[in-house]
Each structure stands twice: as structure tokens, then as C-alpha cells.
Specification:
This protein has 228 residues and is mostly beta strands. 8% of the residues lie in helices and 37% in strands. The strands form five sheets. A five-stranded antiparallel sheet has the order 3-4-5-6-7, sandwiched between helices. A four-stranded antiparallel sheet has the order 1-15-14-13, with helices on one face. Strand 10 and strand 11 form a beta hairpin. About 14% of the residues have low confidence.
Length: 228
């Protein structure tokens, strides 16, 4: 199983630079674990992907209650990965050992409500644990929540001391991504897509994390994550 990620700016006049960088916390570990897991006796059959309803929650872009789905990917060696359309989150990676015993090798929560409440809550000073989620627009910290691009200064909500972390108060991990199963020769997976609008993460003066107001990120950005 593997991850691929691509982003596309809606405006050719704006350069993506480091500002629209996106990171997936578990991407590297998923690839290494899936490749190295070889249960006793091997396995057979083609990879599969199934989808189930996982609950619903409010999507910040629309303000509407929106369904969330969980995709379960299974390969012929017994590795099973569960991915949520909420936050592009890798909920679990179950890996069989050579003796056949299984273990979940990533941290996560059992319910959608726990993810909404705990994984990257926008109301505490240091964010959340970000278990398995797709973070963005920016991975890591932006000092003082301020950066310059093409000679213009942009300001972002503060959610980590004096810094903006992993996309701010409401990053990619707090949104419900459009999703569908994908299939290819010998592969099965899920594709997730999120459209981040121009001014995403902006806020009025005095709003949470924006004492002097925040411009948010520039340009519309469409991000697609494919996991196989």
C-alpha cells in the first residue's frame, strides 16, 4: 500500500512555495509496514476496499451536518488499513506478525465524536495529537503566524504558543473530504479530495487566534490524496 498526494492552485499568479505544503503523519510508516508484513503461510487474493458509514458531523466550510465514511483496505498479506473521510485520517493499520498475531501499529480513536473532540481541537493553545490526520495547508509551525509571498504579508490564526501549527485552528484534519474507492490492476484504495478556498483560515479582528484579524492562506487550492 502506498500514498500519493498532489495539490493544484486555482490561481496561476500565486506560487505555492512552502506555504501550501501538506504532510501526512503516517505516510512513511504505512508504506514500510505494509511492505515488510509477511504473515506465516503468505496469503492470496486481490486487494480489497470497502466503505461504511462512520457517523456525521458539521463541515466547517458549509456549516452543514455531513456524513463521514470509513474505508477499509485489505491486501493479500493480511494488512488492513482504515481511513476516514474526516480529516483524511488513518484510523488504524493492523499488521500480522510472522506468527499470525495482529497488532494495530498506529494511534487513533474509536469514534468520530472522539476525533472531532480530541484529534486537533481548535480551542486549546497547543492543538491536539493529530493522530493519523492529513495536515495542511502547512505542515509544522509558521512563526508568529505570519509569512510573506510575492511581496505580500499573510497572517494566520495562532494555535501553538505564538505560532500557527499544521494549518491553524481549522486545518485539513478538521474537514470532511470528498471520497471514493479506486481500483487498478492488482490494487484497491481510496481517493480523497479537499478544495481549500482563497482566504482559508482567515478571521475577523478579535476572533479566536486572530486578535488583529487574519488574512488566511492565498489562492484556492485543490488537494487530492490517493491511498492504495
Amino acid at each position: 500500500m502506498r500514498f500519493s498526494l498532489r495539490g493544484r492552485l486555482g490561481s496561476p499568479a500565486v506560487r505555492i512555495g512552502a506555504v501550501a505544503a501538506v504532510a501526512i503523519a503516517t505516510a512513511g510508516s504505512l508504506g514500510a509496514t505494509a511492505a515488510s508484513a509477511t504473515p506465516a503461510g503468505g496469503g492470496g487474493g486481490s486487494p480489497t476496499v470497502t466503505r461504511q458509514y462512520f457517523g456525521s458531523t458539521v463541515e466547517p466550510y458549509t456549516g452543514k451536518n455531513t456524513p463521514v465514511f470509513r474505508y477499509t483496505l485489505t491486501n493479500s498479506r493480511g494488512v488492513q488499513v482504515k481511513i476516514l473521510s474526516y480529516g483524511g485520517i488513518v484510523q488504524s493499520i493492523d499488521v500480522p506478525s510472522r506468527s499470525g498475531a495482529e497488532a494495530d501499529v498506529v494511534l487513533g480513536f474509536k469514534t468520530l465524536q472522539d476525533y472531532v473532540k480530541y484529534v486537533s481541537p481548535p480551542v486549546i493553545a497547543n492543538g491536539g495529537p493529530y493522530f493519523g490526520e492529513t495536515i495542511g495547508r502547512y505542515g509544522n509551525r509558521i512563526a508568529n503566524g505570519t509569512f510573506k509571498l510575492n511581496g505580500k504579508t499573510y497572517t494566520l490564526p495562532i494555535n501553538n504558543g505564538v505560532n500557527a501549527l499544521h494549518g491553524g485552528l481549522v486545518g485539513f484534519g478538521n474537514h470532511i473530504w470528498a471520497s471514493h474507492a479506486v481500483h487498478g490492476p492488482g490494487t484497491a484504495g481510496v481517493q480523497l479530495t479537499l478544495v481549500s478556498p482563497n482566504g482559508d483560515a482567515g478571521g475577523a479582528k478579535g476572533s479566536l487566534g486572530c486578535p488583529n484579524g487574519c488574512t488566511g492562506y492565498p489562492a484556492q487550492l485543490t488537494v487530492t490524496v490517493t491511498t492504495r
